[in-house]
Amino acid sequence: MTTLNKVFHLTDAHTTVKRELIAALTTFVSLSYILFVNPNLLHAAGMPKGAAFTVTAIATAIGCFIMGLVANYPVALAPTLGSGAFFAYNVCVGMHIKWQTALAAVLVASILFILITVFKLREKVVDAIPQDLKYAISAGIGLFIAFIGLQNGKLIVNSDSTLVTLGKFNSPAVWITLFGLILTVILMAMQVPGSIFIGMVVTAIFDILIGQIPLPTHIISSAPNIAPTFGQAVIHLKDINTPQLFMVVLTFLLVTFFDTAGTLIGMTEQAGMVDKNGKIPRIGRAFLSDSTAMVEGAVLGTAPLGTSVESSAGIAMGGRTGLTAVFIGIFFIISMIFSPLLAVIPTTVTAPALIIVGVLMAGNLKKIHWEKFEIALPAFLTVVDMPLTYSISDGLALGMIAYPITMIASKQYKKVTPMMYILFIIFIIFFLVTNM
Questions:
Q1: For the chain, what are the domain ranges?
Q2: What sections of the protein cross the membrane (predicted)?
Q3: What residues contact 169, with CB distance under 8 A and at least 6 apart?
């Protein structure tokens, strides 16, 4: 305990090993779907599915270890669905680029990412963002997380006429989600310690009892070999020699840059780590951690790693230090032999947790100066567009573009830092590159 306290400063963060462990388990359960979704995406790109499963687990574990030990942040680093989908469907399927070459593009973008981090450009970007917009980013991620939870729980489904609509109440998934949500809400209102985690466990048991979770035929299985993917990014670096591939590198760089910056701001706001001046402690180490994790992920053979929004579930359970991230990494290592068990856990088990976390993160809305229209508009665009565009980086970009415009129009241009004007131009380029 003394050693852990020295390494992770548990006492200073007002937390305990038990609390960090519960927080880690909560984040792991919420994030465990990535072990099966990410391999499916990579398999669509042509990558062997078995190797992709093992790589996902190992890359996530290493990323969590780096984040926990280097930055002492309670957040997980894992392959992101947005980057994974872009990797598989845009680059490999759409552009007919081999997955080995696409991995090389990720590796190049990752190395550039580290250089940008070392020169502290990412820190300067985060420091330049006004505090009101930081609150908006955190709240927007909360709405985004809640929206994902509502979708996963089938409370919101696709609609050809209105894009989304309320789910059908004749669906077992809806009733399971409602059961878990009502239970967790009651536990939260009663201030029961570990409410979110207890809610997930009881919901999983409920699923089993009513026959909605099929029991696995076996519990333990050996992890597939990663030989087919390991090192392919390095071997195929020579393939990055065309304008098209340079654009792929640039897109990976831009998307991961803004996604991770936005998510880290949101997570640190939720954890109460931001000081009264809006500064985020050790943010440089956190940025170096996620950029390093991108490199190791590319070498192992997966799409870009980034800060996981599911980390918010663990933070809501009291996770405050890197010990949470280290525990998450350990759970992912262990998970490699329990893949048959994890495969049967449906998203309806974790959906209530994501919805509740969204509610908690939306609390930052009250801190925004809504009475000032020049602040309200960019904040509103940031908050609303994250769930509506299904992208943290897109919501962040729209808010950053609107902010200088409203400030100039209200004759407050002197309050806009030079970096914000630079970001204004960069975000316009970002949209031109990623949405043309």
A1: 2-358
A2: 21-38, 50-70, 103-121, 133-152, 172-189, 196-215, 245-267, 321-338, 344-363, 375-404, 416-434
A3: 175
